[in-house]
Amino acid sequence: MRGHSLQDIQPLSFPGLENGQPLVIAGPCSAETEQQTLDTARALSAMGVRVFRAGIWKPRTLPGGFEGVGDKGLQWLRRVQQETGMAVATEVANAQHVRAALDAGIDILWVGARTSANPFAMQDIAEALQGHDHVTVLVKNPLTTDLDLWIGAIQRLLNAGISRLGAVHRGFSSAGAHIYRNDPQWHIPFELRRQATGMTILCDPSHIGGKREYVEPIAQQALDMGFDGLMIESHCDPDSALSDSAQQVTPVVLKEILGRLVVRSGLPIEDELALLRQQIDDCDHELLAVLARRMSVSREIGLFKKAHNLRVLQPARYQQVINARLEEGQHLGLNGDFTQLIMQAIHEESVRQQLLL
Ligand code: PEP
Ligand code: MN
Q: Which atom of ligand 1 is found nearest the CA of 140?
């Protein structure tokens, strides 16, 4: 199924989630043990989270770190699904991961930042997904600030017939010391939004911030900027987490954070534009109504002149009107030539109306 464009991507929906409410995906960076996975999932489910995340194949920058529990974690995710009814999500980095996750009935697969940057890996993943269009796939932005690479990764999935697609903004690697672990470069997801208007775009404040105290302010900023939801790392015991310990929060803390986040009634950019256009339409309606009223007054004057045998055109009066309007227009900040042109056109039409009588 070739030929689908970014603009064909529709918003994601999940059972139990109201449209318009931010989508929250939460769970540990990594599934470490069955106990840790289930404890975290139960706590998140109890507070109303409907989508659970946990990495089981972990791409690590340096070898020797915790590289995930692998395939056995899929069964833990199955238990989460069955026990809590949450949808479950895990990261896939190659075709083998995709096949294993599909076989295990995982609902959502996400492609991480190190994989979305690699067109060969993306092509393999897309081909492994072919024919499985029921599955939801989220694409995190590549580590580098190259929007085309992100779009290319999404496009490969679209070309494979995957239509349940979303994107996750997780910030970008940058050299030098920064407060945040990954630089947000908000203009890049904004540009993706412009090119894929209907696509669900989430923000991952955990990987952007890199520290738990940054999760809330970045999450709020993302909501204020119209992101459709959040992917947040939450672990039942963050300090003992085997990966990304510093940025994970307990389910209790996550509940507090989510409780404080304000979902503003502010509308997405496109709706704001629609509102402004509505104002223009309203102004034009007013203008036309005023013009119609003015012509009707002109005709009344015309009838009066006719009844009293007066000339239609009275140059002194006309000059007086133009001068007064020019001055008034100037006070209102209107360009003089423009005011003159408009007033001339109105006057001409008034005269024409009176001559018709
Ligand atoms: C993750 O979500 O745990 C992860 C590895 O993310 P990213 O690919 O954004 O680094
Ligand atoms: Mn992580």
A: 9
